[in-house]
Write a structure and sequence with these properties.
heterodimer, A: mainly alpha, about 80% helix, globular, B: alpha/beta, Rossmann fold, four-stranded antiparallel sheet, 14 strands
Chain lengths: ~220, ~300
């Protein structure tokens, strides 16, 4: 049944394949330079794939067919599981596509070892896991409102952070905010070379994914259509 | 609730759909203590004015909404506990059929059909032809009536045991409406399948329903076999004497005006005996009469 739902979502969203072509054209262009951050490009690709699947493909409300889907002989838990599987698969496919572009394009100078670096793969898993865990419960339960609400909260949070950092006398508050995020990600990337830490991070991602899935099942199962 | 024993002759009386004391509460509406049964091989009509709770009952059977109390069984299984098995048994036509607007009926058929082990692609194709539906046209570009026909083809093509149709005849032309009603009669003739037809167009049910459940303001006013309704329910027109003690108790509702009293009774034989010597006209009640007069007293 999971496979049928998966195929259904792929059939319903062919435009997503074409929609991401410009992004991958840019990736193909970006990998031409020796100093291009190929690990970051593959990770961002994975994030984009998972986030697109979570915010667009997972939203049955786009088709006004939520009741139809719920009337099919599929358990609501299976419906939810199929969305998580789709998001993970889309993230994985986007990662592999970007990696293959970097590996196979004749003008790409990057060695295989740099492209399929274990830490980049782990970062991609973290990004895919975190974005899916955050976005899917909102998208599945609240549809477009949930997705827009999520990004609105992010924006409001960003503005709040800006004012807070201004209040504490920081001269360039935005730089401080983004610098903080950059510092966090760089440290995470660096620390992933330690096997113990990597296992801990993977366990945290798996835990967050499981909690998110349970939350989605709870939200979707109790919903009246 | 006014309950009349269902007829016992003809076909199995094993209930395919069974509601027992089902309640569902919303902030602004409540369905209270709903009970009725639909045996295999019969057509059941769910009637009531707009907003009475018919669609909620239909959705409860499909577990699209969750009940607060009571018991629901489809083929002996609870839709909440055996969601997949129950939904395989049911073919559902929604009041406003909403499918993937950018897909054609052919594409929707292949997509939906994959979920049903009993899906009959040849039957689906033949139903599309029979209903004069363009299989390659986008669903979103179809008229309301064509959408309903498409939804009906989808529901019929997986050979559902229980066909649930929520206001299916709204938007259909009279010719197809009649053809649909006849098709439904044929559908249940195998003695295994049943149809629950929710509608406020009572003339559709007059032709075809074996059982009728009347819902008003979230409560079942009556649930009875159509034969029993025909035998026991009647309208009576007469003078103010109809409202006198002894007669009034036999009335299920009435309306009085300058031209006399028109009333409804659920005990036509007794009323006939009582009014034998009075100037009153007693006629079999239509479903519309029942909907209009039941519980009315003005």
């Amino acid at each position: 049944m999971l496979r049928k739902l998966f195929v259904k979502d792929l059939q319903l969203n062919p435009h997503l394949f074409w929609g991401v072509l410009p992004f991958f054209a840019w990736i193909g262009y970006a990998v031409r330079e020796d100093g291009a951050p190929v690990g970051m490009l593959t990770t961002v690709s994975a994030l984009m794939g998972a986030a697109t699947a979570s915010t667009v493909a997972a939203r049955e409300d786009r088709f006004h067919a939520t009741a139809l889907l719920a009337s099919l002989p599929v358990a609501r838990t299976t419906l939810v599981l199929s969305r998580y599987a789709l998001a993970a698969a889309a993230g994985g496919a986007a990662f592999v596509t970007a990696a293959l572009l970097a590996a196979l394009l004749p003008w790409s100078p990057h060695p295989m070892s740099a492209i399929f670096d274990a830490r980049s793969v782990l970062m991609a898993v973290v990004f895919v896991g975190a974005s899916t865990a955050l976005l899917l419960p909102l998208a599945l339960r609240f549809g477009l409102v949930g997705v827009v609400g999520f990004f609105a909260v992010l924006q409001v949070g960003g503005v709040g952070l800006f004012f807070l950092s201004s209040a504490f006398g920081l001269r360039e508050p935005m730089r401080a905010v983004f610098g903080g995020v950059e510092f966090l990600l760089k440290n995470l990337y660096a620390s992933l070379s330690a096997p113990g830490f990597a296992v801990l991070v993977l366990a945290a991602v798996a835990g967050a994914g499981w909690l998110s899935y349970r939350a989605s099942v709870w939200l979707v199962a109790r919903r009246d259509l | 609730m006014i309950a009349v024993a269902p007829r016992s002759e003809g076909g199995t009386m094993e209930p395919l759909l069974h509601f027992r004391n089902v309640s569902k509460r919303y902030p602004d509406f409540a369905l209270e203590d709903v009970s009725f049964s639909l045996p295999r091989g019969y057509i059941g009509g769910l009637i009531g004015p707009n907003g009475a709770g018919k669609t909620t009952i239909v959705k409860l059977a499909l577990n699209l909404v969750h009940r607060d109390a009571g018991r629901i069984e489809v083929g002996g299984e609870d839709p909440a506990e055996h969601e997949v098995a129950v939904k395989r048994r049911i073919g559902f036509v929604h009041e406003i059929p909403s499918y993937y607007e950018h897909l054609s009926l052919a594409a929707i058929g292949s997509l939906v059909g994959g979920f049903y082990p009993t899906w009959d692609a040849a039957l689906y194709a033949s139903l599309l032809r029979e209903f004069d539906l363009p299989s390659r046209q986008r669903f979103g570009s179809l008229s309301r009536g064509m959408r309903t026909k498409g939804a009906l083809a989808l529901a019929l093509a997986h050979r559902a045991e229980l066909l649930i149709l929520d206001e299916p005849t709204a938007g259909l032309d009279p010719v197809f409406r009649r053809a649909l009603i006849e098709r439904l009669a044929g559908y249940v003739s195998d003695g295994r399948s049943s149809v629950l037809l929710s509608t406020h167009i009572t003339s559709d049910l007059e032709r075809v329903a074996d059982f009728v459940t009347y819902v008003r303001a979230g409560r079942v006013v009556l649930s009875a076999a159509r034969d029993e309704l025909a035998a026991r329910w009647a309208t009576v027109r007469g003078g103010p004497a109809l409202l006198e003690a002894g007669t009034r108790e036999l009335l299920a509702g009435y309306e009085s005006g300058p031209h006399g009293v028109t009333a409804l009774t659920s005990d036509a034989p007794s009323l006939r005996r009582r009014l034998a010597r009075q100037d009153a006209v007693i006629e079999p009640a239509t479903l519309e009469d029942i909907m209009y007069y039941a519980g009315r007293s003005c």
